[in-house]
Each structure stands twice: as C-alpha cells, then as structure tokens.
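Hey, quick one: can you model this chain's 3D structure?
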Amino acid sequence: MAERSTAAVDVADNSGEKPLTAQADQSTADGVASNRERDTDSDEAQRSTTGEEAVPPSPPELHSGHKLAGRYRLEECVTRLDGFSSWRAVDEKLRRAVGVHVLPADHARARSVLAAARSAALLGDPRFVQVLDAVEENNLVYVVHEWLPDATELTALLAAGPLEVYDAYQMVSQVSSAMAAAHREGLAHLRLSPNAVLRTSTGQWRIRGLAVNAALRGIASDTPQRADTEAIGALLYASLTQRWPYENDAYGLSGLPKDLGLIPPDQVRAGVHRGLSELATRALANDGATASRHESPCTTPEELVKAIGEMPRIRPPEPAFTAPPAYQRTTYQQGPYGRPAPHPGITQPVPTPPPPLQSRTGKALKWAVSALLIAALGLGSWQLADALMERGGKTDDQNQTQTTEGGNKGGEKPKPATPLKIHDAVEYYPDGKPQHANDVGLSYDGDPSTYWRTYSYNEGPELAPYKQGVGIMYDLGAVRNVSSASIGLFYGGARTTAHLYAADSLSSSAPLGSMKEIGQVSTSGQVLEFSAERAVKTRYVLVWITSAPYSGRDEYSGAGYKQAITEVRFKG
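Sure thing. Here's the predicted structure for all 572 residues.
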C-alpha cells in the first residue's frame, strides 16, 4: 500500500506548468495518502534504507540562459527540489522547446536516473512523452524530454469539473493500454497522477515521466503493476467525480469523507456512467477488497485493458445543433455628405426635382432624342424580321434542337445518377504492408454488417508518418462516368479523412502520383459522401483513407486509431 501512495505524486516537467516550491510539493505528497493508511514512503525513509546522506547535495548553480552541451539553453526553472531541478529549455540545434531534468553527477540517484531515462527512451512509444537525451558531462547528469506546448494536464481539466463520459472513457482506455505496453517491456511509472497525464489539442492522451519521475525521487515498489493499476483507477475516479478517492485532499481535489472507505463514483455524484464507475472501483481494490460486489479486482494494466474491452463501447456525443442567429433587420443609412445633417424632432423637407427644360434649346433636345429612339426601334424590328425569314426554311427538328456543352437536347432534363456495379477489388498498399487483403470483398457485398478493417495505430487521427494511408482499389468493369461515391464506415469519431482517385489499373502498388484525384472529404460520422464537380471517366477507383478516429478495444482489434469500410457505392 505504501508504494501506491508514492506512485500518485508527479514531478513538474511539462508545458504550462507553474514553478513549484519545495513546500508546495511536500503538501501535495502529503495529500496522496490512501484512505486506509498514511504514506510512509518519504524521502527520509528512502535515504535511511538506501544509505543516502541525510541532506542531499545542493543543486548545481544554474540560471536562465545557461547552456548544456552547447545546445540546450535553460529558460525557466519549473521545479527545484531534493537536489535536482527541472527546466523549460530550448534546443538551439533543432529550434524547439524541450524539458530538462538536471542533478549533480555525484547525487545518490544520478545512476538510477540515467538508467531509467535510457530504458524509457528505448521504449519509443508515442503515447509517452519521449526522452530525447540522457547525458553525463561536466559533473552534471541531465535528462532531456519532449515539451508539449499544446497539451493540458488532467489536473487543469479537472479544475473546471468532471470529464464528460466519452472523454473519461478515452483517457482510461489510452492510459491503460499505454501502461500495459510499458509493463510488457519491464517499465513502470510509479508516480502516475493527474499531473503526469496530458491531453493534447487533438484529443490524444500522453503520459510523462515514465520510470524517470520515480527514479528522481528514489521510489521503488515490490508490486509495480498493482501500483500503476491503482493509480489509473484513481485517475478515472477523479475524472468521473472531481474528487480524490482517498481521505486527504490532493491535486486541487477534495478527498472522500473520513472513515467511510471507498465509495463508488456513481454514489458520489449523480449521472456517473455505471460501467466506468465499476471499472474505477475494480482498479482501486486493495488487498482483495473492492467496492464492486460483482466483479473481481483488476491488479495489472493488462487486466484493466481487458475489462475495458469487455465493456459496451461508449460512442462520442453527437455534435450539438446550434441555432443560427436571429435575423436582424438593418437599415441603409445614407451619409450626410452634400446635405445638412438632420436634426431630431424636425421634419426634413422632401427635395424638389428641378423644373423641366422650357427653353427652345430644351424643346429641340427632346425632339432629337425622340427621333433617335424611333429610328433605333425601327432598325431593330427590321433586323429581327429578316432573321426570322432566313430561318423559316429550316426544318422543325432543327428549330427545336439545342445543344450546349454538358447540356441536353430537345429540352430534356438531365438523367439522374445511376448506381455503378463493382466487379472486383484489391487492397492498395504501396508500402508492401497490407491490412486485411482477403476481406476487401466484404466492403461491397451488399451487407453493411460485414466490413474490411484496418489495423489499430497508436498515433492519429492522421496515420502519417507511420502509415501514409490505407485503402481499396475498385474495378467498375469498364470505363464509366463516376460522379459520386458513398462510403459506409464502422467507426465514428474525430475524424475520418478519405481521398478518391481515378487509376489506370487494378494494382495494389501503383504510385499514388500516377492517379488523378477526384475529391477529398472528412467526417466524424459513419458515412463519407463524395460528389465530384464534374464526372470523371475511369474504370478503376481508389478509396484512400489518410485519417482515422480513435476507438477502444473490440472483438477484432485493440484500442487505437482505426477504421473499417462496411459498404461502398459508386454512381455515375
């Protein structure tokens, strides 16, 4: 239980984080004690068991503008505590913001920090804030990591209120699957807290401080998987209730009432999703005790991922309809230029038109204008009559036929678009890595319950650079006029982007540059509708997906960014 308490405190090392003092950090650590026992895993206890000095070495004399390795320029100190400091810095070589942890090379934890940073860097999982460098030089050890300027800590999100159901579901799904992958490689976090979980502007959840944060504080655990699982349960509990699931307040959240034990989230706050409430209590179980009377506790991130996969899928909320603004009548106001401004309460006189011309010159001018108009009318009438006489000898069919480019003859209405039959299809994978090539026929078999699907990807919605795209090439049997397409999708959410190309052959690897793009469209729903400005003549059509929404684990694939095509229809 002691390792659970220490696993919930975070080291400040990301964007948007205000500088912390040692006193503030200590107060946070005090608030992480469980509702059953106090935190006894203090730094003093760690030093007494590991033989560290009672007073850690002083941090190096660093300041804003100091440069490490002639490359990393320190900008702002975020944390200065217990012999180490954390900074926001600039990588002058790559011209990007980074974060840096710095501690003396003779610090008792310097070796373990270097080892943890190098192990985390080898994982290379994009769901974690990446370690970019780990160096020892000039009597200093420093660890350089990503800095995410567009990310927001879960702590800040919860300050505004509980998360929406779909957001909480996405958070626990992504964090659980990421930690399960880390533990499969032998890496634990041990300090997984609301400060360590970040949501990017694209809606992806990232975890910072894997292994490194615990090494900086000298934290270890005999049951690392249990500690991280319980920490994930605390994150979900806080996301659902805006309460910390222990007696003490922490991370700006109020704790639970004393001596009542673990109260399920749906009993703390009305309207909490029942399945997520059950999941949180299963993850927070201690020593076999759990608030759930129906399900066994989850003791590893892998078990938590499995439990999430067994839940009914939580779909994103439908976009709210916003009524257009009420029509406001506006009145044109002529400027005051050329006339005096009106005065309130005074009726303005109506301008009097100038009198007609009365002189001899005026009368002559009127007669001249009248004569010109009569002559013009006569000339026009004569030309019209002559034209009609010349065309009189032509047949009625010629008089009734009218042809324009892209128009119709004889006043006929344009023909409605007709469905085009798909004769064959192949999966398109120019990189030589197919998805499920044998299932392409399910995308046009007339049954929307069957589909061709992609694999799950860790990064998204854009699949690049890991995958430029995924798609299927369709054969229409002969050259047709393709004017529109309807693509049924299995997964909704933000977002799916697809392109339509006209190709020269039914090929799985023809260069994309050799094809003609018909159109591009994006959606957060489950149907992609293409409509070309002009019909395109082609026999082969490629549906090329370049962005896919995030979805949880299901019976066929794990959680990640993925998509499936249920039914494709072309019209021409």
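One thing worth noting: The domain at 419-571 is CATH 2.60.120.260 (Jelly Rolls).
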